[in-house]
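can u do me a favor
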């Protein structure tokens, strides 16, 4: 495995959260690829049951089992796990209570769904517990099976409660295997080996949720990682033209001449008007991005920027995003 200095040396659990629509799952997958590059073995965990990882890597829906989904540059490997709550609960019962048969019987009777519905915190306990077990798991020779684990976690508005659920359980269960399990999970989640990364767009609501999420994690002592700005639109106009477009003061006669010189004589005026409107929208978006960037600069955490991929997201684009994260020191 090749050595490389990154912003997250020593971190083995990367929790990726973000407001819905920010591309959280895509960024988690790209981060897993970036971490695996150079001969490392990384596990990408999905906890929301949407099979988003399978779609990104263009593979069949993932079963409840760790399956290799990608080869990273220089021989690294990315494995994926879509955690099934029922199967994880059966594992939990077997591990701590030797009740595998009872767990299967509960599943047949629908009791598992009933229990996790009336006690939704139990679902989070199972999901965080399974992930932390993957972080701690070792080979017979004592080395960790995975060099890193990346969790595609719930959205920002739920992340603090999700990660802190075992602390609440620990407070309720004073002794016994439930308390021991909760303490073990929180030991992983609160350790320097964990970092919670926030994915955002340069828009007001995602940035505000990022700021609020970082504040909430800090309040309960959970480890804040970096901020990953996704889908940034690069300005395509010079500063003077941006200012003119924003003010509605572009020289439309010049645009008409340009359209005609491109061989579009018919309807040149209408085309020029559409182009001016697009330029005004581009100027508005650029100004918005700059304003939200300034808000993010108040956060004293590493920040990474991923470009907007105009051709859409495919496997090649995922590798491009992974390379961008590595180039910026995120992995």
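np, heres the sequence
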């Amino acid at each position: 495995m090749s050595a490389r200095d990154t912003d997250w040396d020593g971190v083995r659990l990367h929790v990726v959260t973000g407001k819905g629509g920010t591309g959280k799952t895509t960024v988690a997958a790209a981060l897993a690829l970036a971490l695996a590059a150079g001969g490392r073995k990384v596990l990408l965990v999905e906890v929301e049951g949407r099979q988003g990882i399978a779609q990104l890597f263009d593979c069949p829906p993932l079963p409840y089992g760790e399956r290799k989904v990608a080869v990273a540059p220089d021989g690294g490997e990315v494995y994926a796990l879509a955690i099934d709550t029922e199967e994880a609960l059966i594992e939990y019962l077997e591990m701590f209570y030797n009740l595998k048969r009872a767990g299967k019987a509960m599943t047949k009777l629908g009791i598992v769904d009933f229990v996790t519905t009336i006690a939704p915190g139990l679902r989070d306990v199972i999901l965080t517990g399974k992930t932390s077990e993957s972080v701690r798991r070792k080979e017979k020779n004592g080395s960790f099976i995975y060099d890193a684990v990346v969790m595609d976690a719930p959205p920002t508005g739920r992340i603090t409660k999700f990660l802190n659920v075992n602390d609440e359980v620990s407070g309720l269960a004073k002794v016994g295997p439930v308390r021991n399990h909760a303490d073990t999970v929180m030991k992983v989640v609160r350790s320097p080996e964990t970092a919670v990364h926030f994915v955002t767009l340069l828009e007001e609501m995602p940035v505000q949720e990022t700021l609020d999420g970082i504040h909430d994690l800090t309040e309960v002592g959970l480890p804040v990682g970096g901020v990953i700005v996704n889908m940034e639109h690069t300005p395509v106009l010079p500063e003077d033209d941006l200012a003119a477009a924003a003010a509605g003061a572009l020289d439309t006669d010049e645009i008409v001449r340009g359209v005609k010189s491109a061989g579009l004589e018919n309807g040149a005026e209408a085309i020029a008007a559409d182009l001016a409107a697009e330029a005004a929208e581009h100027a508005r978006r650029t100004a918005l991005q700059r304003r939200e960037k300034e808000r993010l600069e108040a956060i004293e955490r590493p920040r990474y920027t991923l470009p907007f991929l105009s051709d859409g997201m495919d496997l090649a684009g995922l590798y491009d995003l992974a390379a961008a994260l590595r180039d910026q020191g995120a992995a």
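The chain has two domains: 13-233+308-327, 234-299. hope that helps!!
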